Amino acid sequence: MSELTIWTLDWVPQGPRGFVRDLRLRWACEEAGLDYTVRTIPFDGRETNHLEQQPFGQVPFLKDKDLEIFESGAGLLHLARKSDKLMPRDPEGEAETLQWTIAALNSIEMVTVPWWFLKICGDENNGLTEWMGQRLGHMERILSEQEWLAAKRFTVADLLMADVLRVSHVRSFGDRPATEAYVTRATSRAAFKKAHADQIAHFEAADRERAKEGSN
Amino acid sequence: MSELTIWTLDWVPQGPRGFVRDLRLRWACEEAGLDYTVRTIPFDGRETNHLEQQPFGQVPFLKDKDLEIFESGAGLLHLARKSDKLMPRDPEGEAETLQWTIAALNSIEMVTVPWWFLKICGDENNGLTEWMGQRLGHMERILSEQEWLAAKRFTVADLLMADVLRVSHVRSFGDRPATEAYVTRATSRAAFKKAHADQIAHFEAADRERAKEGSN
């Protein structure tokens, strides 16, 4: 049995498939060549049925032998210690990777996720739109000048930033060709494709389970 | 000359004083007993005058000898490697500290900052209010059960979470006594008080400079 376990939901509706954040951890393990097992908590009651493992009722969380760690960003930084494929070992490359990993979480996703939240509540031209445009504009400028964010090669910072930028509400927010090329570049990697296909297959298997139960 | 330099703005209006995020890095250095120098970039033109150092036009950023690192969260994790006062060295304590540091950035601040942004734009009962209440409610539950977030003692995760929770728009959002006690506990620490007083003094000195220039 592998030492790493990625916990996610047993089933989700079609909409979030391919985007549930266990994909970040699957992708990182695939890039680094780390074995892992996937286990699940029930979708029904998810808001309160695993607060002991994840205090905000979210997925994923990661188990590494006896260690448990929640927050996908923390899981990624934890996995990055296991492989220099995810994070370079020289101080400069490490600092660059760390800063861009945090930037994905706290400078980009901090705007894009609340903007999306307001959008799905019916308010597309909401009070965060200008801020969203500014932040994505900064990313477009940066990505038009460099292929990857840190250390001149793919790192866990790109894995996270590309995952933040590849969602449809960000991709359709204005015309940003360098960002689009970056997302394509990152999601063309074999490790992403494997992680993505595995997540889709995981939820499709759950559909079949549900259908079987329904026919009993 | 100290090896660490914290970069912030040369001046800000009264409102943000005591809350500019160089305080996070000052506080961490004070907790860890690390020497540091503070240097500044001009407030006027701040949105574009230091994009080479900070690609979103924000402060702070940190210089450690030849390394430059932006994002206050990344700066904190970088400083945490220098002192076990900020992050325990055992794997469990380290993982706990890492996950709660990321939670402060990506589960709490990701809601509280956009909520505040909409509020100052005049929309206090905005579409993020219910989400904000849920997240702060989870924190209240957690903080009613434990004194500090990780490793049963103060860590850099508390430094960051307390800094996220101590802003007035969060403190005045409902009645959450455990959170309020936590914020009081964290901000009663000598290192916080020193960092806070130093930031206030820094901007007051800038006021005097500006007044002198005005009288020439």
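qc> Chain B touches chain A through 46 residues (CB under 8 Å).
qc> done
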